[in-house]
Amino acid sequence: MANQEMNVEHRILLSARAEFAEHGLAGARVDRIAKGANSSKERLYAHFADKVALFQAVLNLNGMEFFEAVSLSPADIPDFVGRVFDHSLSHPEHLRMMTWARLEGFNFDLHSAVMESERAKSDSIREAQAAGLVDASWKPDELIPLLFGIGLAWTQAPGTTGSAEAPAVIAAHRAAAVEASRRLIQSR
After folding, report:
1. What are the pLDDT digits (tens) for 161-185?
2. Measured at the alpha carbon of residue 74, what is the angle toward residues 169 and 67, in degrees to the nearest 5?
3. What CATH code is carried by the domain that includes residue 14?
4. Domain match, 101 and 12 both
5. SS3 of 109, please?
6. Distance of CA 108 to the CA centre of its chain
7. Do 41 and 62 belong together in one domain?
8. Backbone angles phi, psi at 23, to 5 degrees
9. Which long-range contacts (CB under 8 A, 24 or more apart) does 39-43 make?
């Protein structure tokens, strides 16, 4: 029974992600979420206190998925930026949820797994700095958001259409992001 309830909760989260990514918190409708999850509103409320709690749960799930999907190797930090780029194109719902959360004033509730992932990324930067692969003047906690920003730049830039663009255009955007990160981290 517990496994079945986990399955219901997971279906609700996936349906809610689609609804919130499309409509934001204010425009999302619980009845559409329940229907999309093949569930009822009552069942949804058995798992989540209200729509705000459900939004936060989806946001937390997105954060965990996003941070775990993009690892950072000290030997190839620009490749990390390429993976952020790839993930943002293949999972636009994550970026849309993060954007809605910022617009709605939500804080990201980073679970211990995400925090550990972030610590590992900082440790990777320090290791790369010790090996002379990254400019040692960067503070790892300041460099990581910049690297994410470069990887996400094409999905957030005005006038770009993301995965709807021609493969050659996408490849050129990815190469530009990777090269920008390579230049950013060069030891001086």
Report:
1. 666 778 999 999 999 999 999 999 9
2. 65
3. 1.10.10.60
4. no
5. coil
6. 11
7. no
8. -120, -5
9. 39/8, 39/11, 39/12, 43/8, 43/12
- In terms of domains, do 70 and 39 share one? no
Q: Which two tokens stand for residue 152?
A: 């996400």
At residue 114, the pLDDT reads 64
For 169-185, give the DSSP string.
Answer: HHHHHHHHHHHHHHHHH
- Dist CA 77 CA 75 (whole Å): 6
Domain tally for the chain?
Answer: 2
At 166 the three-state DSSP class reads coil
Q: Which long-range contacts (CB under 8 A, 24 or more apart) does 107-112 make?
A: 108/59, 108/60, 108/63, 109/56, 109/59, 109/60, 109/63, 110/63, 111/60, 111/63, 111/64
Instruction: Clarify whether residues 44 and 69 are in a common domain.
Output: no
Question: Cβ contacts of residue 121 below 8 Å, gap of 6+?
Answer: 72, 140, 144
Predicted confidence (pLDDT) per residue in 117-152, tens digit: 778 889 999 999 999 999 999 999 999 999 999 999
Q: Which domain holds residue 142?
A: 52-185
Confidence of residue 112 (pLDDT cuts 50, 70, 90): low
Among the listed residues 101, 84, 106, the one whose alpha carbon sits nearest the alpha carbon of residue 155: 84
Asked if residue 33 and residue 65 are part of one domain, the reply reads: no
Q: Check residue 33 and give its pLDDT.
A: 97
- Residue 154 and residue 76 share a domain: yes
Counting Cα atoms < 13 Å in the Cβ hemisphere of 60 gives 14
